[in-house]
Amino acid sequence: MEDRGLDFKHKEVVNINDGKRLGFVQDVCADLESGKITSIIVPGRNNKFLSLFSDNNDIVIPWEHIHCIGEDLILVKI
């Protein structure tokens, strides 16, 4: 899955395991050496399970968990 130049902040993130809408992408993390996106960040809603990798309640979703990127949605498997 390679998408360059996408505006992730206008995309809603949906978990395909349970159909829950997680919110809109707040930020992305990238590997500075390779330039590849490593994860996306969605503002959290006090969900301890989904925010294991973050100091606050934000949901950090590793790139490997992104199932599909559409025009309006990002489908993730978490």
Give structural notes.
The protein is an all-beta fold. It has one domain: SH3 type barrels. It is built from no helices and seven strands. The protein has strands at 12-15, 21-24, 27-30, 37-42, 59-62, 66-69, 73-76. The strands form two sheets. It has a four-stranded mixed β-sheet, with no helix packed on it.
Write the layout of secondary structure elements.
Blueprint: E1 12-15, E2 21-24, E3 27-30, E4 37-42, E5 59-62, E6 66-69, E7 73-76
Parallel strand pairs: 1-7
Antiparallel strand pairs: 1-2, 3-4, 4-5, 6-7
Shape estimate: globular
CATH third-level topology: SH3 type barrels
The residue ranges in which pLDDT falls below 50 over 5 or more consecutive positions are none
Average pLDDT level: 84
Largest sheet: spatial strand order: 2-1-7-6
CATH superfamily: PRC-barrel domain
Question: Sheet with the most strands?
Answer: 4 strands, mixed
Computed CA radius of gyration, to the nearest angstrom = 12 Å
Query: Counting H and I runs of at least 4 residues, what is the number of helices?
Result: 0
CATH A-level architecture: Roll
Strand content: 35-45%
In CATH's first tier, which class applies? Answer: Mainly Beta
Distance between the termini: 17 Å
* Secondary-structure-derived class: mainly beta
